[in-house]
Amino acid sequence: MRDVAGDRAAAGERAVVVRELGALERAWNNAFVRKTLIIIVLAVAWEVYARILDNPLTFPTLSETIKTLIERIGDGVLLTRAWTSIKVLLLGYFVGLVLAGLLTMLAITTRIGTDFLETMTAMFNPLPAIALLPLALIWFGLGTASLVFTLVHSVLWAVALNTHAGFLSVSHTLRMVGRNYELTGFAYVRRILVPAAFPSILTGLKIGWAFAWRTLIAAELVFGVASGQGGLGWFIFENRNLLDIPAVFAGLLTVIVIGLVVENLVFRTIEKKTVRRWGMQG
């Protein structure tokens, strides 16, 4: 009886007391709440600094920017320009992903493919995509094709590099599993390499998306000068010429909002359904 009582006492001493978290602690543990708080702090800092500066032609207040944003959404101009940019962006991004996938599949299955990918990335990855825009204008003229060409360049190498690095980091054990099941070619890549390397692939997708946005806005500024048309980049350039600085900031804010939506809805959803579900990330 003494041994049983002693065991129970020892077990009681080793028991972990779990303290119930308060409402504030539970809220703070939520990433969405923390990120929202960061955005609120930045918004307040923007408003306060703009009011202290008191120079609308240099730095308008957030309230004036949001007012202009609502007005431009109401008249349909900003939505039309944003949709124009998104359509071109999605086209260039998709073409870049397809080419990156083909290059990495070739690199992971053949030696010459690996050499080709390493050589091409060493040559073209350091080259800014916007630097190719003059050539694109000569080759494809003023139009969507030139924009897509520059977007493909900005997406292709970032995605290919991260995907190839992820494939190379797949453990020898998983590779042996694929060989034991006699998987080859596309089936081997799809069933073994892609799931194991998906964290690196997802990072490449995010970097490629960010590069594509930067390149598109910069390229549309040039197209705006040349042809008087375009998407968000031309909207920003046009209103800068008109000295409508709140509208310029409204265009920049639209780019930021779209980026936040894509990051927190699209990429975060993909991450939850793949990387976190597969136990590759805490």
Description:
The protein has twelve helices and no strands. The protein has one domain (65-276): MetI-like (MetI-like fold, Orthogonal Bundle). The longest helix is centred in the last third of the chain and has 43 residues, at 185-227. Helix 5 (77-109) runs antiparallel to helix 10 (185-227) and helix 7 packs across helix 8. The chain is flat. The mean pLDDT is 82. By secondary structure, the chain is an all-alpha fold. The chain has helices at 2-14, 23-28, 31-53, 62-74, 77-109, 111-124, 133-140, 144-168, 172-180, 185-227, 232-241, 245-276.
Please, what is the CATH homologous superfamily? MetI-like
Number of strands: 0
Largest sheet properties: none
Question: Low-confidence runs (pLDDT<50, min 5 residues)?
Answer: none
CATH architecture grouping:
Orthogonal Bundle
Query: Termini, distance in Å?
Result: 44 Å
Please describe the topology of this protein.
Elements: H1 2-14, H2 23-28, H3 31-53, H4 62-74, H5 77-109, H6 111-124, H7 133-140, H8 144-168, H9 172-180, H10 185-227, H11 232-241, H12 245-276
Helix pairs in contact: 4-12, 5-6, 5-8, 5-10, 5-11, 7-8, 8-10, 9-10, 10-11, 10-12, 11-12
Summarize the structure.
This protein is mainly α and 282 residues long.
Task: Name the descriptors.
mainly alpha
